Amino acid sequence: MSKRTYLSQTELMIMLAIMRLGRNGYGIPIAQEIAARTGRELAIGVVYSTLWRLEDDALVRSEVGESTAARGGRAKTYFQLTAKGVKQVREARQSLQQLWDGIPQLKGSLT
User: Fold this and answer.
1) Helices 83-100 and 9-21: crossing angle, nearest 10°?
2) CA gap 5, 88 in Å, rounded
3) What is the DSSP string of 64-101?
4) Smaller CB count within 10 Å for the chain: N or C?
5) In total, how many domains does the chain have?
6) Is 85 part of any domain?
7) Which domain holds residue 83?
8) Does the residue 4 lie in any domain?
9) How far, in Å, CA of 102 to CA of 84, rounded?
């Protein structure tokens, strides 16, 4: 397990999507949630490679669901954040907020 000091933007978006999806957090819905909320399209390969890296770092955990005929007998792999993962998301939010605070160009409307 590597020592993690920060989350990349993609990692953070994937972790937030997992939190939003709850028990439905697997590859395709994660990519769809990110696209719907940010307009960013992530290739499914990027989503899964990021998920496996986050799991290697103990920030998410996976659980294999039931196999289904609709998926040719394959099972879905569902992801949830670990306590360590939630802590990393909170720390990322705090760090970004501290950088944003007090920047005049970022006050008020986004348009």
Assistant:
1) 120
2) 9
3) EEEE-GGGTTPEEEEEEE-HHHHHHHHHHHHHHHHHHT
4) C
5) 1
6) yes
7) 9-102
8) no
9) 29
- CATH code of the domain covering residue 15: 1.10.10.10
Token pair in block for residue 20: 């939003």
- Let me know if residue 92 belongs to a domain: yes
Degrees (nearest 5) of the Cα angle 45, 48, 50? 105
> What is the C-alpha to C-alpha distance for residues 78 and 63, in angstroms, rounded to an integer?
5
- pLDDT, tens digit (0-9, with 9 covering 90-100), for 30-74: 999 999 999 999 999 999 999 999 999 999 999 997 767 666 667
The answer to whether residue 110 is domain-embedded is no
DSSP result, 91-111 = HHHHHHHHHHTT-GGGSS---
Q: Is 19 buried (19+), middle (13-18) or exposed (0-12) by CB count in 10 A?
A: middle
The answer to whether 15 and 82 have CB atoms below 8 angstroms apart is no
Q: What are phi and psi of 32, to 5 degrees?
A: -65, -40
Supply the pLDDT for residue 7. 93
